[in-house]
Amino acid sequence: MKYFVRIGDTELEVELVERLGELLVAVEGESLAIEYEPVDALGQVGILTDGMSFGASVEGDGERVAVTIAGHTYHVEIEDERERAAHAAERRATGSGGTITSVMPGVVVALLVRPGQEVAEGEPLLILEAMKMQNEIAAPGAGVVTTLHIEQGRSVGTGDKLVTLRDLEA
Amino acid sequence: MFRRILVANRGEIALRVIRTAREMGVETVAVYSEFDRLALHTRLADRAVALGGSLPSESYLVGEKIIEAALASDAEAVHPGYGFLAENAAFARAVTDAGLSWIGPPPDAIAVMGDKIESRRAMQAAGVPVVPGLVDPIDDAEAVVVAAEEIGFPIALKAAAGGGGEGIRIVREPSEIAVAFRTASGEASSAFGDGRLYMERYVERARHVELQVLFDHHGGAVHFGERECSIQRRHQKLIEECPAVVVDEGLRERMGAVALQAGHAVDYQGAGTVEFLFCEGEYFFLEMNTRLQVEHPVTEMVTGVDLVREQLRVACGEEIGYGQADVVMRGHAFEVRVNAEDPASGFLPSTGTVKNLRLPGGPWVRVDSALYRGMEVGLNYDPLLAKVVVWGEDRAVAIERMRRALAELNVGGVRTSVPAALVVLDQSAFRAGEFDTSFLEGLDLSQPHGGRVELAVAIAAVHRHTAARRQALGADRGDRSGWVARNRMDRNWPR
Which of A109, B167, B229, B304 is close enough to B240 for a disulfide, judged by CB 3.0 to 4.6 Å? Predict the structure, then answer.
């Protein structure tokens, strides 16, 4: 089984093979001896690798996983081969322009644009308030506002759609 | 001493007050919003009164409900903690008007120090040094453009009624004024109902040094030395320490005297903090926080004084009972704030359920935490989840102790500020004491630190694989099957 793991700006390929009740692990083709024992059902795991011991912890299922080793948390995104293909197809479909999503949960305190309005790169589209701070969400590039997915005063979660822009040339 | 007090707060600070009160034989009454029915402060107090509502504006910010709860539960005094109504002069007045004691400074002192303009005037009159800037608040961007020519860039725009970093914007050139004014004024309006701003010169490469002070009702006053809180972003502190690297004994004596002067000028009573901008030996009054500070434990670790105990003693009329010479600072302490936020993406707030939790321990490690397994971290409350505080005989020992403690800590289910603190503690400039308030913002926190990327990636993949396998097999949810992977089959590795 192949997994593609994104961490920060890099992507590493991890291959797992079950054989005779054991799991073979290779990161970027390099075999890694690892003993992985869950301590509880909450995420504490005991790790032994290359003679070293770690009381690590791991949370999350599916595509987003957080691993904490010695206080440092490594946030990774994992795709298997099937998911990787699906995501690539998705990216091809959207092209440039596209929909701006919220990178944090918050409340839309002001909407500064209307559908049909032309906006320049960097022009503020709306103000999102989170943790008592107001953040201007700016247009990533020049375009025309096609859809507002939100209303003033509405709460949004991480990943929620905010505004869709269409490329000026399109 | 009081027989019973109400703690008008939540989170780690409510627990902090409850703990000392219990040690003093003082009963505590917790108040809680619906969201906090199972919070630790609700469970650990002697009594608990529901305020109803889930938002702060329906619960912890409603003075009438809190006073009603205090009277109904027969409390004699109210401790406000920090945040919420702690620096609300009208609430302090309402508490005393209801016949209760207020564990904090007199309402008039709160009012003067809570207003940036008034406090600046009062401090200038009292001979306390202040930063160059306009004394009067400004309500339109045009006026900022005009005044900026006299004061010079960069300029800080701050809410006239603000505090804690809300509504503050730094402007480096005239073209930035319009946007900065609009957002800062908007934040100030929504947070305080007052969109007026105060402008002053932004002192660059400044360090944040603050003095802990205590005044009793009999004219007695002492200071407990300084704390340095320069490791911050967006004016929210991440790491605090006591003492400050840049303050020696002589300077401490002088700054302490100035801080007491500042308090005396407003007839201060109780515990408070006088904040200074510190730049190359010069220091300017920033503001006075008329309450207990988040970072007060570092002072407690170094002086051996329980500041909450002192607050309670002074509030019920006792004299301080010792002099400045009796305050002895020993060793060095650090505090790291465990906030629910993601350092890798600009410290954006993080929400979730804390399922997995491991707190540090061991010698000279103190954890002031409101965390528990199953706790929901939402957006409606302060992101501070816990504080890790350590003491060491000197700064270098304390730094290593903090790194050790943070390596033991694990808060699963939300992202926290801890990895950022570990990066700071690792920097040679920080370890040499060479930093200012822009230090944290200058670090690249977008990439993983810690040097165990391959191992982390392998663990993540095994975790995912195990979860998928368990699901496929329909195994028990509690199943804890482990894996042993060996590399003895290397030669047979399928390529």
Answer: B229
Q: Closest to B450 (Cβ–Cβ): which among A57, A70, A131?
A: A70
- Residue B133 is predicted with a pLDDT of 84
Q: Which of B182, B201, B220 is the last residue of a domain?
A: B201
Kindly state the tokens that stand for B105: 């400074």
Expressed in angstroms, the distance from the first to the final Cα of chain B is 76
B252 and B182 share one domain: no
CA–chain centroid gap for B170, Å, is 21
Tokens, residue B340:
């629910």
Q: What percentage of chain B has pLDDT greater than the value 90?
A: 72
Predicted confidence (pLDDT) per residue in B85-105, tens digit? 999 999 999 999 999 999 999
Global pTM reads 0.83
What whole-number distance in Å separates Cα of residue B391 and Cα of residue B404?
A: 12
Q: Is A20 left (phi over 0), alpha (psi -120 to 50) or beta?
A: left
Among B201, B219, B236, give the residue marking a domain's end.
B201
The span from the CA of B469 to the CA of A17, in Å, is: 12
Q: How many domains does chain B have?
A: 3
With H, G, I as helix, E, B as strand and everything else as coil, classify residue B249: helix
Question: Two tokens at B339?
Answer: 């906030």
Interface confidence, given as ipTM, is 0.80
β strands within B149-218, DSSP E = 155-159, 169-171, 197-201, 207-215
Find the domain containing B163 and state its range: 132-201
Q: Least CB-CB distance to B459: which of A1, A40, A45?
A: A45
* Residue type at A151 in one-letter notation: E
* Inter-CA distances, A168 with A96, A126, A146, A164, B225, Å: 11, 20, 11, 13, 60
CATH number at residue A49: 3.30.700.30
Q: Which residue has better confidence, A144 or B244?
A: B244
Residue A105's Cβ-side half-sphere holds a number of Cα atoms within 13 Å equal to: 15
pLDDT tier at B322 (50, 70, 90 boundaries)? very high
Q: What is the CATH number of the domain that holds A109?
A: 2.40.50.100
Whether residue A156 contacts residue A142, with contact meaning beta carbons closer than 8 Å, is answered with: no
Residue from B459, B469, B480, B484 to probe the interface with A (highest A Cβ count within 10 Å)? B459
Domain range enclosing A74: 2-84
Give me the mean pLDDT over the B280-297 stretch.
94
Does a structural domain hold residue A134? yes
In a domain, A90, yes or no: no
Amino acid (1-letter code) at residue B179: V
Token pair in block for residue B209: 């040094």
Q: Indicate if B174 and B227 belong to the same structural domain.
A: no
- Contact list in B for residue A58 (CB cut-off 8 A) is 459-460, 463
Residue B459 forms contact with A (CB below 8 Å): yes
Could you read off the pLDDT of B126-150 as tens digits, one per residue?
999 998 787 778 888 888 888 888 8
Query: Rounded CA gap, B239 and B87, in Å?
Result: 23
The order of strands in the sheet holding A133-138 is A133-138, A124-130, A106-111, A155-156
Asked if residue B320 is part of any domain, the answer here is yes
Give me A157's structure tokens: 């979660």
